[in-house]
Amino acid sequence: MSLAELICPAGTPAALRTAVDAGADAVYCGFQDATNARNFPGLNFTPDELTETAAYAHARGTKVLLALNTYPPAGKVDLWRQAADLGVRIGVDAFIVADMGVADYIARIHPGTRLHLSVQAAASSPEAIRYYCESFGVKRVVLPRILTIPEIRQIRTEIPCEIETFIFGNHGLMVEGRCSLTNYLTGQSTNMDGVCSPASDVEYTRDADGSMSSQLAGFTIDRFGPEEKAGYPTICKGRYTAPHRREGYYAFEEPVSLNLSRLLPDLIDAGVHAFKIEGRQRSKSYVRGVVTAFRRAVDDIRAGRQADIADLVALTEGQKQTQGAFETKKWR
Amino acid sequence: MKMSAGIASGPPLAGRGAVSRLACALVQPLLSRVVRRIAARHPSLFARLGPHQATDFLIDPVELPFALHLRPDPQALVFRAVPRDAAPRAGAVIRGRFMLLLELVDSEEDGDAAFFSRDLEVSGDTEAVVRLRNALDDVDGSIAEETARMFGAPGRAILARLRRSYVAT
Ligand code: SF4
Known about the structure:
By secondary structure, chain A is an alpha/beta fold. Chain A is built from 11 helices and 15 strands. By secondary structure, chain B is α+β, with helices and mostly antiparallel strands.
């Protein structure tokens, strides 16, 4: 049986402590810059904060993973190298990387440092994963959310590293963050600047009838009726009209969150080593609620009991949840 | 997790005129004390606000007879009750039921979830709101409890009563 480690999000020092106290096996976090894919205003850690909170986590047996999971623009690698050096000095337990140059730098300059391959690398075939393992010594791959459980089981037999899968949270998976939709509208790149739909480009307006419109860079991307549940202002989850669809429809994806609580035993059985909870941009309340629920569920399964997972739908985007491709390839 | 109680649609009935002005005058001394104390105890809050220390936030608890004007500038803190018809032009507006806003401040509720359920409305500068949210979320402990403790037993009793009345709605 796999260890089924619980990998939990931490956007602030207080959220990190909350995740540790709620039973995280590992927390993942990032610095306050473009080196990670949640480069949001007011979020993330200064070097001093990470030093202090990593000590808090380590004292309680929780690992700290540092996300360096964006792609440096050509020739501008210094920020990523400095972040890696800093992470090593702080004593983080592993780096989550996507870019080959970043992986190569850490493997060469800091040999022996543990590397996890970010979902942003979108490595979904045994060949691709093996390449990262052989070239940079990657010890774990975070799989893109496009594979079924039988496919994951098969991949497990063909790769020399551990597997981590997402089990809960935001489900924006168009080629796992490599999509350029936000770049097209805002001029900022999710993969290089670390932020999709930057808050400075987002505006919400309330209409007289109680409806709400969300705009990104001046373009209306959705309009929610007075009673309708809302979602994040990302273009992939916008509602659009087209010549054949006059009424406005989710052309790419619906606002919905991944929730694999019911599939945990199958994932463990398939050899998944670690379960990732998305949401570094979310509050301590979310971290507390989700980590506590999944901690209990994983412990129950390990002890051979039926997992009783709390209802987490209130924390999901659009208050809707899905098992996505893990359940069936028919999921678009 | 509480289920959505909904946000009142349309303009609130209270929050204007003489009653509102009187209510503002009554709560103002408390607000000034509260905000000074929180700022003194949690200085790291301001770093997360970045350039939005100078932004005027209007926090609008829909069922109270006034709104709250916050400018989180550490050099010149502003936190005051204002009648809705005399509210300043705000860079960002945050609107919801009072108890929800209090729970968001204390991270007992999740801001994104309240936004998804439409219990929370934001308008104006979204970055300012995100920064304020992240700054408050990084505060350990409960700001509501801290505030209630400032006013001793009566403060704690009022907070407990508020919480009970909210659960009952
Ligand atoms: S638009 Fe959607 S798929 Fe593209 S980067 Fe943003 S969240 Fe991801």
